[in-house]
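Query form — protein FAD-binding oxidoreductase

QUESTION: What is the three-dimensional structure of this chain?
INPUT:
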Amino acid sequence: MTRFNTSTVSAAEIEALTRQITGPVLAPGDDRYDAERAGFQTARRHRPDLVVGATGPADVRAAVTYAGSRGLAVAVQATGHASAAVAAEGGVLITTSRMSAVRMDAETRTAWVAAGTRWDQVIREAQPAGLAPLSGSAPHLGAVSYTLGGGLALLSRGYGYAADHVRRLEVVTADGRLRHVAHDSEPDLFWALRGGRDNFGVVTAMEIELFPVTTLYGGALVFPAGKAAEVFGAYLRWAATMPETMNSSVALISLPDVPAIPEPLRGRHTVHVRIACATGDPETGERLVAPLRAIGAISDTVGELAYAEAGSIYNDPVVPGAFEADTAMLGELDAAAVRAVLDLAGPHEPVPHIVELRHLGGRLAHPPAVDNAVGNRDARYLFNVVSRLERADLAEIRPAHARVIEAVAPWSTGGRFLNFMNGANGAARVPSAYDAAAYRRLTGIKAIYDPENIFRSNHNIPPVEGRTGSR
Ligand SMILES: Cc1cc2nc3c(=O)[nH]c(=O)nc-3n(C[C@H](O)[C@H](O)[C@H](O)COP(=O)(O)OP(=O)(O)OC[C@H]3O[C@@H](n4cnc5c(N)ncnc54)[C@H](O)[C@@H]3O)c2cc1C
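ANSWER: The structure tokens for FAD-binding oxidoreductase are given below.
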């Protein structure tokens, strides 16, 4: 049990709030406090004055109203995959895991998704109707937070960002009001939330579009690290010729020496090419992947795959852990870019990190039918560097990541993707997630909907000075 000073909130206030809220209201020292604030990312945990386990919009309204009246910051957590990004110190943390529900409408190809729902639940509900959401590499992520942060999906090159396909949002703003926002109702707030994530309120539900996808041609080709230069070079030439239906990434991964990893790969430094091809036709997929197969993989799981099994493509960890990451958005890449990355990420490096390039472009490069705040649509690759803290020290990892990010700087667009911003990306980097004019507009909308900046335990967009107001 954690005990730390919580003089900000009195016992009487906790009691009063408990009477208004159906879910638990927990302070440090309470037996259930640690479990309620725990998330997937264990490196930096939220340490709020109060955790409110919301069961629905009414609980969220009560918690936000209370925090607003006391000038306390409000943070939100669904699954805690991004809690290392900015961990709340004090204030009120609203957890949404009890708000997990999906309402499907197969006819309009839409789903109404509550705040704490994970993608795997949406996929389970949508697949019997032959439909799929724009979920990402890991099906256990929170659907709402992922979408509000942009949402780079397995099939995004063909469809765009998940945020591009939100129809309506239900949100509790800083004044405690539950608002129904859409293109024709509070359009500024609707624009800002889709990309501005947790800066404008607590979204209690979203209505999203679904797509007719049941199978993919997908999986991973794994090569020995000795072939890294050849694979990265061939991958870049190959990716440049691919249609929008082909989604892929390449990553250098040092696999741990543990029984969960199959024998030919266990403990080896490897290169993974991940494939998610949306043709629904294995012959086309096979033809498109053939040039990469010709390099000679030591493991090849690429084949016809049910969308419900698409989490196996990246095989992202499901067990909570501690990690550090950094990110950059890149333009077109050449052989010099590959050399720059491999020089710093090979088996000889003391910090075992994953470096990854996700192929962008296609529909991601186009503005959506209803414009939103998601920026950096000119980028061609998303670059990530990730290290598990169990396998190296933070004091070693931070400078190692900084060196890798610096090495790709000549190819950087200067942008970053909000969903992959981590602790190392301080508040000063938030504007890089947006185009300059969009960032200015966001600060103006913030001044209207959250003038006191109660939603500040996040990658914060501060309200523009001198322009506050209420709606
Ligand atoms: C293994 C792994 C794989 C990933 N793969 C992808 C990927 O393929 N594509 C991609 O785009 N991203 C990916 N991400 C990043 C991921 O989308 C973000 O970390 C996302 O924010 C996680 O959402 P969560 O609900 O799971 O986490 P949480 O930590 O619970 O929430 C994340 C953020 O969203 C905010 N938030 C949560 N709920 C709400 C709400 N109801 N209203 C407003 N704000 C809210 C929180 O304030 C928090 O800052 C991945 C991350 C991990 C760790």
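ADDITIONAL NOTE: The chain has three domains: 11-95, 102-212+434-449, 215-422.
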